[in-house]
Amino acid sequence: MPAASTEDTGVDTGVDTSARGLPRAARLRKRAEYLEVQSRGRRVHTPHFILLLRPGGRQALGVTVTRKIAGAVGRNRVKRLWREVFRLNRELFPPGCALVAVARAGAARLDYAAVAAEVASASAALYRAAGAHDASAPLAPSQRAIPRAAADEPKSGSRASSKGASPSASKKRQDP
Prior knowledge:
By secondary structure, the chain is an alpha+beta fold. The chain is built from six helices and four strands. The protein has a domain at 24-130: Ribosomal Protein S5, domain 2 (2-Layer Sandwich), CATH 3.30.230.10. The protein has helices at 31-40, 72-88, 112-130, 141-145, 148-152, 167-170; strands spanning 42-45, 49-55, 60-64, 97-103. Strands 1-2-4-3 form a four-stranded mixed beta sheet, sandwiched between helices. β3 (60-64), α2 and β4 (97-103) form a beta-alpha-beta unit. The longest helix is centred in the C-terminal third of the chain and has 19 residues, at 112-130.
């Protein structure tokens, strides 16, 4: 851990000032930036958040928490947690994408570990939504467990290959 700051007074404050939070350049700050992501972004849903992702541009975060979710203290806490998760876990978020996290019911009761776990579980979906299909995109644990050759083979129990399938199951629905 870096040494605590002595600021200008020469007194040790006990506070690490080497990392004071998310830099302004990594935040969405203007209403127009939020509206751009919300209107043209792709959505990824988690149990406590709706994540809106807009590829192109810089990697930046915006957080929206309404009064329906919590009071002022709870809303600010959710925003601080998100900024910390984003700052410490940049690899979970696609590079060059602006992200807006919209809090849903129950978000105010989460702690850092719960928010980080929720983001980690949604990371693969975020990369898919961003269109990143390269090797640098992290894979979900379920994707890592499937060998590449086995994932490319058709399943033996699919409807198309079953002999006893009803004729109506293979017909396409025709609208009048």
